[in-house]
Specification:
InterPro entries: AAA+_ATPase (IPR003593), ABC1_TM_dom (IPR011527), ABC1_TM_sf (IPR036640), ABC_transporter-like_ATP-bd (IPR003439), ABC_transporter-like_CS (IPR017871), P-loop_NTPase (IPR027417), Type_1_exporter (IPR039421). By secondary structure, the protein is α/β, with parallel strands linked by helices. The chain contains 21 helices and 12 strands. The strands form 3 sheets. The protein has a 6-stranded mixed β-sheet, sandwiched between helices. Strands 2-1-4-5 form a 4-stranded antiparallel β-sheet, with helices on one face. The structure holds adenosine-5'-triphosphate.
Amino acid sequence: MSKPINPTHDRTKTKAPYRALAVYAKPHTFTFIAVVLCALLGIAADLFQPYLVKEVIDDNLMIGKNDYHSLIMICLLYGGLSIGSMLFSYVQNNLLQFAGQSIVAKIRKDLFGHIFKQSMSYYDKTPSGSLITHVSSDTETLNQFFTQVLLSLVRDSMTLIFIIVMMYHLDPQLTLYSMIVIPIIILIAVSFRRYMRKTYQLSRTQLSQMVAFTAENLSGMHLIQAFHQEKEQMKRFTERNTSYFGANLREIRTNVLFNRSFDILGNLSVAFITWIGGIAVFDKAIEFGVLYAFITYIRQFFQPINNITQQWNTLQSTNVSMSRIWNIFAAQPEVKEKETAALIPLADVKGDIQFQHVHFGYQKDMAVIEDLNLHIAPGEMIGIVGTTGAGKSSLISLLCRFYDVQGGSIRIDGIDIRDVSHRDLHRTIGLVQQEPFLYGGSIIENVRMFDPSISREAVIAACQLVGADDMISRMKDGYDTRISERGSGLSAGERQLISFARIIVFEPKVLILDEATANLDSQTEQMIQSALHIVAEGRTTIVIAHRISTIMHANRIIVMSHGEIVEEGTHAELLALQGFYEQLYQHSQGTQSVSSADRDRLSSIG
Ligand SMILES: Nc1ncnc2c1ncn2[C@@H]1O[C@H](COP(=O)(O)OP(=O)(O)OP(=O)(O)O)[C@@H](O)[C@H]1O
């Protein structure tokens, strides 16, 4: 098996992707050798056929020999060669498809794994639609490289050489006349090359933009329908679609022009050779059979040239796809796991969390969190409130190490989270977000996240504990009910209960709820609240909420504004302070939920 490649080295060199591709192709060396052998035998079988006909014409028919025996033998040989050529071509195609598909499957797997390793900052910058295109269609283009381009380069260039040898053997002078077209072919190929590359790249970029736009719309469908944005989005889609249509047409037009130029050149050469060769036959300088074989060869001569040039397109796409795939491979996660991480296990965690002088910004010069200090004791339940954009979710993202702090440190049980493995850290922390992510699969699989070591009984017990058992039992197939993609068959509360059950089975020592009840009505929130108290038992728990009612019973409440902690204490202590929290509380008493505009107004009070 090929080793995973290290694409970072040599990234700037354009040959680097091809060198890396060669690493993937290496385990299939013997298959490629077998393909070349089959191609050689197939070509020989093909090209010997006109020579046989020439033999019949010149050595039998033209001299009136009437040798029936050799005529039948040559006809049988001709038929045998045709069958042989077909068989070789069949084996060669199968072998090449197998090698090509295996290489691409391996690249696709490595690419998917590499994308998984990236940090959140990578996903912030890269639209998911374009990643989908790279994993699906760009890797498919690589397959075409092996099964079409490589095949054509090997088979057609060998055919060309064989034809020239055969032609030279028949008549060197006619061969030299035929070669006049070669400089013209090079001229056409070079002049078309740059333009074809440009048109191809343009159409690929337009396609990838259209896919990205479609993916974005599908994920935001609720919003689009709620805001009646269908017409607007349709207009934007049509613009992209029209651009793609135009770019595609331009590309096809260039290709057709390129291919037809070759066809015309082929026909003109046949006319030229018929003229020159015809005169030579009249003058008895060559035999008629030689002219026949020569014309057949010159027709065959343009076929491989045309084939090779037709692969130009695929070669262009391979270049573009390769560089795009290699750009992904070259991306290194910003959040890196230290090599020594395995030596510092995060085991038997008590759940002591310390933010020490934490500084962070998504852009280097725009701080979102500045010199933040916070100590959370093991088993403590902390509520975090604050204005929109205060930095609450960012704080949690830092604790989960989706991003790295730019200053200060975050410690769990005194250990810097940058020193431990991602696996240990994410086992320690359980995160429940506003929109829990559910996979297409059964409820059982969704709760245990496809981990077979978690038993069905454990899943059922967890669901009973959080109060989801009733709801699940009422479903058609109970725990085996299949949930559609992203859990769209369930209500927001039901989805959230399932994500709570997940927390129970995975038993993280630190539990984070980021606006986990924001989408729920007050009755469901009550249900979730009681589930939360069960789940939070014995765990350090951080709850971010806009609704004061969600966090008012926490051991301590942190009030954040503009990346800083502005107030801290229990619900009663904070009310007594009569500061920002008290304003938030009063407001929430009046409106139940605080609108963002109001929060901003309150922030200025704070
Ligand atoms: N992925 C991101 N890339 C760039 N900026 C971001 C990103 N996520 C958040 N921000 C910015 O960082 C700031 C803090 O955002 P954060 O989501 O932490 O606030 P929050 O207090 O959780 O807000 P809310 O209550 O609305 O969820 C905001 O100004 C926001 O625009």
